[in-house]
Amino acid sequence: MIKVVFVCLGNICRSPTAEGVFRALVEEQGLGGRIAVDSAGTGAWHVGQAPDPRAQKAARRRGIDLSAIRARKATQGDFTTFDYVLAMDPDNLAALKKLCPPGEEHRLALLLDYAPGAGRRDVPDPYYIGGQGFEHVLDLVEKASRGLLAHIQKTHF
Ligand code: 4NP
Q: What is the CA(73)–ligand 1 centre distance, in A?
């Protein structure tokens, strides 16, 4: 089993969106039994909460249901559980580097490393932007999900 966790700040907007989008892609490709998907936040403010209603609504319009996801905080243990620990932006990457046990850094990357054509490194935080911010997150995450799945298939299967 290849295990992937997406990490943002609150685990209520960007990373649950990535979890839902990537899981849908994995299942669509018949790989649900081979790739496990999760998400987490580097901050703890929203632990236990469902994704932001704006993120849920935007995802639902693209056929993706985020309602069962609950926010949790990223832990040091994530670096032994997950093969891929993917940060949504450089700030969260820096926070994860501090949490990462020595020798496990190879698991850590930016999600948008898998979407070189996107021309940026961060999935911008939509929390204070609203509306189009959530659509932009979905566009970036869809692109990177395809790149990530292609990478996993090439590398592991
Ligand atoms: P996320 O968005 O990191 O994409 O889940 C945010 C959610 C909440 C906060 C910041 C970003 N907050 O400051 O509460």
A: 12
Does 62 qualify as catalytic in the annotation?
A: no
Instruction: Name the residue with the closest Cα to ligand 1, atom 10.
Output: 10
Whether 14 is catalytic = yes
The string of pLDDT tens digits covering residues 121-132 is 999 999 999 889
> Token pair for residue 75?
């832990």
pLDDT digits over 91-134, tens only? 999 999 999 999 999 999 999 999 999 999 999 999 999 889 99
Domain of 146: which CATH number? 3.40.50.2300
Q: How many other β-carbons are positioned within 10 Å of the β-carbon of residue 155?
A: 9
Could you list the residue range(s) of the whole structural domain that residue 52 is in? 2-156
Separation CA 120–CA 103 (nearest Å): 27
Report the number of distinct structural domains present in the chain.
Answer: 1
